[in-house]
Every structure is written in structure tokens, then in C-alpha cells.
């Protein structure tokens, strides 16, 4: 989605973005972490400048369709894991590494 600081960014945007879905149980382990690798090979639809406001979802085969299994969002007492708590998910951006 287009944001207010997009004009400050250089495009195409290439790099690695590491995102984490936080475990919201009392134990802070068992987070789910994924790294998105954005390269010029992904195509301009993915790494190019967003020109319109709207839905971020794409239908070009690149989008991450599974970050975590739906059944894994619920409380799992044996693993001390609960991603979904009070109808909320918490995501963190752990790192952004830009390529030239």
C-alpha cells in the first residue's frame, strides 16, 4: 500500500526483510520468523514503487500465502505457544537489509 514516505525511498526496492509473528503466551520462545527476499528478479510489481492506494494482495504468484498454519494460531499448551490472543496477532520487523 502506498505510504506517506514512499517518495523518500529508492526503487526498485531490493533487500531482505525479516518478519516475526510473536508468541503471546507467557513464555517468549517459539516465535515464527520468515525472511522475504526481494530482488529485481521478483519483477517490478513486487519491488517497484506503489502508485495507488488499495489492497496489498497480489495475484502474480509471488505473495507469501502461508506464514503460519491456521491451526497453529490457537493456544497450544503443550508447546506454550499462542500467536492469536484476544483476536490480535503481533508482528515485528526484525531486520531490513538493502541491496544496491
Furnish the topology, listing elements before pairings.
Blueprint: E1 15-21, E2 32-38, H1 44-47, E3 91-98
Characterise the protein shown here.
The protein is mostly beta strands. The chain contains 1 helix and 3 strands. The chain has one helix at 44-47, and strands spanning 15-21, 32-38, 91-98. A 3-stranded antiparallel sheet has the order 2-1-3, with no helix packed on it. The model has no long low-confidence stretch (mean pLDDT 77).
Provide a quick synopsis of the model.
This protein is mainly β.
Q: Which whole number gives the mean pLDDT?
A: 77
User: Number of helix segments?
Assistant: 1
> Judging from the principal axes of the Cα atoms, what is the shape?
elongated
The helix fraction, in percent, is under 10%
H and E string: EEHE
Strand line-up in the sheet with most strands: 2-1-3
Indicate the radius of gyration in whole angstroms.
16 Å
Note the beta-strand portion. 15-25%
Distance between the termini: 23 Å
Biggest β-sheet description: 3 strands, antiparallel
**Strand segment tally:** 3
Low-confidence segments, given as residue ranges, are none
Q: Structural class per helix/strand content?
A: mainly beta
Amino acid at each position: 500500500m502506498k505510504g506517506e514516505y514512499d517518495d523518500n525511498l529508492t526503487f526498485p526496492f531490493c533487500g531482505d526483510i525479516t518478519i516475526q509473528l510473536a508468541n503471546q503466551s507467557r513464555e517468549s520462545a517459539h516465535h515464527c520468523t520468515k525472511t522475504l527476499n526481494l530482488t529485481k528478479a521478483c519483477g517490478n510489481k513486487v519491488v517497484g514503487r506503489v502508485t495507488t492506494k488499495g489492497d496489498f494482495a497480489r495475484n502474480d504468484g509471488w505473495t507469501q500465502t502461508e506464514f503460519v498454519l491456521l491451526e497453529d494460531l490457537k493456544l497450544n499448551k503443550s508447546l506454550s505457544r499462542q500467536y492469536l490472543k484476544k483476536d490480535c496477532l503481533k508482528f515485528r520487523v526484525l531486520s531490513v537489509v538493502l541491496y544496491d
